[in-house]
Write a structure and sequence with these properties.
By secondary structure, the chain is mostly helical. The protein is built from 5 helices and 3 strands. The chain binds zinc ion.
Amino acid sequence: MRLAKKLYELQQVDLEIQKQQEILDEISRQLGESEALIKAKGELLAEEKHLAEVEKRQRDVEWESEDLRSTVAKINDKLYSGKVKNPKELLGFDQEAGILKAKLRQKEDELLDVMTEVEATQDRIKLDSECLGKLEGEWQREQEALTRKQAETQGQLGGLNEKRQAVTSEVTPEALEVYEGTRSKKGQAVVRVEQGRCQGCRLTLPVSELQRARAGDLVRCSSCGRILYLG
Ligand SMILES: [Zn+2]
């Protein structure tokens, strides 16, 4: 009976150890970068890359427009300076200037579109950065809380392991072996007996088993094999 009581105590300690270990495992899973944070960083990086591309496109279009403008100016100079007198040649220049001016208008429209995209991307980056900053702050606080909880749980586990050792030292090696063996097979090794029934399998126990258990023997349920505790 006394032995069964000690094993029951041991079981309570083991259950608590298991509970604390599960908490510790959950904390380990939560420590480290969160998926939301990784996603937000990825999105910001993609927007920054896009901004670099559209800014480069803006510079290219500005250069192309500038080129077209100076070519048109040179042709206009030839057309209106009076140096070229041949009508056929003048007509050619006039047509060329017309084509180039149309191209320039296209470039200027394109430039406006690119500039709009640059501004929109800058706005998105600003919003994304703010969002990321907020997420990082929350994540930091969460990580700190988790680290504190981790240390606390480790401390509790340390205490429980000491308690386990103390309880174990009061149990015979044979009884401990029975306990560990039953625990690995059944999960719960020690069960209470209530109204003559084993609480592990719910079957009514033979009177002889109950008497032996009452007398202080380490008795196992003849049906499910668990250690009986009459306390
Ligand atoms: Zn049983």
